[in-house]
Amino acid sequence: MTRPFEGVRILDFTQVLAGPYASYQLALLGADVIKVERRGGEDMRRTPLSREWAERGLAPGWQAINGNKRSLTLDLQKDEAIAIVKQLVAEVDVVMENFRPGVMDKLGIGYAALAAINPRLIYCAISGFGQTGPERNGAGYDGKIQALSGIMAITGHEESGPTRAGFAVCDVLSGATAAFGVSSALFQRTHTGKGQLVDVSMLEATLAFLSGQVADYTVAGHRQKLSGNQAVSRRPTANLFRAGEGYLLLAVNSEKQYRALVEALGRADVLDDPRFSDWFARQENEPALRAVIEAELAKKHPREWEKILDAAGAPCASIWTIEEVIDHPQIAARGAIQEIETPYGRLRFAGSGFQLAHGGGRLDAMAPELGAHTDEVLEALGYGREAIADLRARDIV
């Protein structure tokens, strides 16, 4: 069964995280992604988490978002390399890049120049602030966008101050937005026959994911504040609680769930306590309600409560580590972590975040060694062995 983007060819100039994450999603779904790197490779290949993998130029975080791609090395400062890019553009469907606005134009391979070669080309440019506007040349780093977008104004505790998310959330959601934008443009092209520019701003992508918080202010005038671990519902029973030797995150938001919670805790008596008669009263008396809940949760391990409360109809979860959740029975049952054989043994990676009835995302090959497909790509363009050797001798590829 074919996958959604089989037959789609992508020339990928992206680096670091947001752009490569976007092209990885399309590669999982069948797109032929040719990753263009400088001759020394991008810095993410050698991040210092693991010396062994860094020395191979295959840092784990880099591998995580570059599987199913082919690697082509080019020195884009040289005219011959730009000529190769233009030859490829005539044959591809999509170009993706995440340089600052104007960089590709200076190289002679910006949107206008490439669209003149291939009018059906989808050109996706990912940047911190977009291709227009007063901040267009600003650097788009994940931490900077977390701070600027409002995420850090609502993440953290009053006593300790704002904190960033524990992963590069703005990079990843910007990459997901870019993949969706490219998919949309490809679908629209089936109606119009025309390519177009997909202009992805990390700041705007983040605001789109904060749509609820934006509307809280624009519609109701509500000003957000640091919310700790409290849910956006502001229910006092949708928060983090101490339990046994650890913690339990309760997601109890409805009256039915509240009743299930207190009954499962053996405290059905609080249903008649006027301090907790409704959500407004519970909010006003949150410290007292928390004391009741935590006194009972202290009696068992969080994982025990997780089973008991879920069975009772009170949604919750103990705190799982990455190494635990990748082996969770639910993850295993759905094949969410994909395994592939590599020269370095059997490796495991996260795949697509959704399942299709047929032709879904699949990891076929690990992230490529630097320049592993340079000869293959050039030969397909008609370059012979001697010509390729000459390009190597002159440090063009």
Provide an overview of this structure.
This protein has 397 residues and is an alpha/beta fold. It has two domains: 9-209 and 333-393, Crotonobetainyl-coa:carnitine coa-transferase, domain 1 (Rossmann fold, 3-Layer(aba) Sandwich), CATH 3.40.50; 240-319, formyl-coa transferase, domain 3. The protein has 19 helices and 13 strands. The protein has helices at residues 18-28, 51-55, 60-63, 79-89, 103-107, 111-117, 142-149, 151-154, 169-192, 202-209, 211-220, 255-264, 279-284, 286-297, 302-312, 322-325, 329-334, 374-380, 385-393, and strands at 9-12, 32-37, 69-73, 94-97, 122-127, 156-157, 161-162, 196-201, 240-243, 246-250, 316-318, 337-342, 345-350. It has a six-stranded parallel sheet with strand order 3-2-1-4-5-8, sandwiched between helices. The chain has a three-stranded antiparallel sheet with strand order 9-10-11, covered by helices on one side. A two-stranded antiparallel ribbon has the order 6-7. The two termini are 36 Å apart. The mean pLDDT is 96.
CATH superfamily of the largest domain, called what? Answer: Crotonobetainyl-coa:carnitine coa-transferase, domain 1
Number of helices: 19
Total number of strands: 13
- Class inferred from helices and paired strands: alpha/beta
Which bin fits the share of residues in helices?
Answer: 40-55%
Strand order of the largest sheet: 3-2-1-4-5-8
CATH C-level class of the largest domain is Alpha Beta
Question: Which overall shape is indicated by the principal axes computed on the Cα atoms?
Answer: elongated
Distance between the termini: 36 Å
What Rg do the Cα atoms give? Answer: 25 Å
Average pLDDT: 96
Strand content: 5-15%
Q: What is the level-2 CATH architecture name of the largest domain?
A: 3-Layer(aba) Sandwich
Count of separate structural domains: 2
- Biggest sheet overview: 6 strands, parallel
Instruction: Report the uncertain regions.
Output: none
Might you state the CATH topology name of the largest domain? Answer: Rossmann fold
